[in-house]
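User: Show me an example of a complex going from sequences to structure tokens.

Assistant: Sure. Here are the input components:
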Amino acid sequence: MRNAFIQELVSLARQHPHIALIVGDLGYSVIEPFAEEFPDRFINAGVAEQNMTGLAAGMASEGYHVFTYSIANFPTFRCAEQIRNDVAYHKLPVTVVAVGGGLAYGALGYSHHAVQDYALMRTLPNMMIAAPGDPMETRACMRYLVDNPGPSYLRLGKAGEPNFHAVPPKVAPGRWLKVREGCGKRAMLSTGASLQIAMDWVSQDEYADRTVYSMPLWSMADKAAQIEALRQHEEVLTLEDHLQDGGFGSWLLEARALVNDLHCLIRPIALSPKVCGTVGSQVTLNRLGGLLL
Amino acid sequence: MNSLHIDSCNLGRRMRVQALQMVHRAKASHIGSALSICDIVAVLYAAVLRIDPNQPTAIKRDRFILSKGHACVAIYAALAETGFFPIEDLLKYGQDHSVLMNHISHRVAGVEFSTGSLGHGLPFGTGKALAAKRSNQDWRTYVLLSDGEMGEGSNWEAMMFAAHHQLDNLVAIIDYNKLQSLTTVDKTLRVEPLADKARAFGWAVQEVDGHDHKALTEMLCAAAWEPGKPSFLIAHTTKGKGVSFMENSVEWHYKTPSADQLAKALEEVKNHA
């Protein structure tokens, strides 16, 4: 996903002279192609995330679409108030990019575990969450965000994720992207890089009938639009590498509660808080957290 | 130098009158903080900022950001008195559904950026200054901060960045009245030696009497004082300036003037030469 991100960003920057990239002193062996081709639009803000985000908002207020880039919680929680007040409240085109979503940096410890980020971003009016499930969805989301400028959060995995789409799919906020056809009215709906885990679930007999969907774009404003999709299903199992509280499944349950004639059962599969404070590989922690069968 | 041809002393006096009336009507706080910056803001709007009230978003305008957003009545008054919006709109300050919020709001014509939480204005202004440099535009960015606000680490992050990138189109003005929320700055979280700190961070530094219009005008019009360096103006001020019983008093960070106190304050301000 990291590689798709930087390739797509370079491609978009060639078409759009207002795209800029600010990194928080991270991105070694990732961001170089952009920095080399667009030195006037690349800034390393140093280890100073509050300023990185505030100055991104300032540049955005003068016509730039700024991507801020760092690892896990550094571009999000460390500068949460700058995202809330400077970016989201002013409706400025800043895309906060976090690499290492979920437990991708599992061995690096709790400081590097991004398992509460949806909860933070979900509560901000005007904020679009982009959590692509594979490199193709990453490209599709980035194109959408540049074509529809505003405050946004792009949550990436790490590197080496498989593709589940042959080409960048057509994405839209709140849209369910069908990734695998099932044979009944039961579904799995994932967001972010846990799409790969959803595909592993349906390879098991017990879940083999399920249609798998990915939702790479969602926000506070897209809940009401979920009702129609939910009406088509008897049961939806949501999957996310994030804690349940304030997460994606919680968002869908809130959407379901908007009406009282829905019979669709929603079962949110999310990380157990047991992963907080535990160190291990991404697979080990996802298993401990209850995401793996 | 701007082209509004307004007398800054007269503007400052009218701003104080409006600010006192607004805070009294809305039963609001922070009048001491607003009176502290009235002269700095009057000089900016009357003599320094290249702005046009009829084109508040003109690309070539200078950008002014109030980082100490709680002192917003001074800015609302300056904007109304210079024609950005009708003076009678000031009556809506702090009322239900008003855009004139009690911390400065970008929904008001002429306001660039909403603040209220301290330590946000300088990083944002730094981004604007960087954008101007990268697009070869000659407008300037001015950010007005409070002294207590220098406790926010984000300001020092922005100061490192602005110096590193040689943003000499950026001017930070510190409203140095030496009082903050509960007591003096010195007793709370010492900021001295402020000038030395700013110099050590790579900024050109000047100090001025923050109520001396002539000195403020000369200093602000002459920035950047050193090519390649952002400018840091330490404006020595008096909290509550212009109303004797509000000067240098922490309680007027919070208190609302009563009808009697308002009458006394207006008399003092209007009679001030």
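The lines above are the inputs; the final block is the predicted structure for all two components together. Residues 8-271 of chain B form a domain with the Rossmann fold fold (CATH 3.40.50.970).
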